Amino acid sequence: MIADARAARALAAGSSLGRMEHAPVSRVEIAWYMVASYDRNPIHVDEPFAKSAGLPSVVGQGMIPLGYLASRLVAAVGHRRLRGLGGDFIGSVLPDEALVTEILLEDASEREGGVELRWKLAAENAAGAVRLRGWARTFHEDSDAVRG
Question: Is 5-147 in CATH node 3.40.50.720?
Fold first, then answer.
């Protein structure tokens, strides 16, 4: 875990938290995201409707890969260090599609009381088609090591 400013300062720009392949996205997961996000668009659960809209199948929400990335980053830094998170949903997530996520350290900046890290987030399908490009900011306090 990148638990304090000292550990954050030890990272070089371009450092990766690694690539991770996630289990294929199921139709059930897509439906649950629809419920959780109050996204009532039938393209997420109604196959005939999605096809009539020109889609190959139902499609998952962009929040699915962003959620995978957020979970990975929080596991690496701790939830209280996350300061910002966002992304551009570039491609549709399809049922039974395995996603590959990657988190790269873009930049580190000294701030009062610690160091801010800026991360590049990416999600693709197994064939390399981009699904999401995003960013995150984390702040690592100098006093984190003292507080634990």
Answer: no
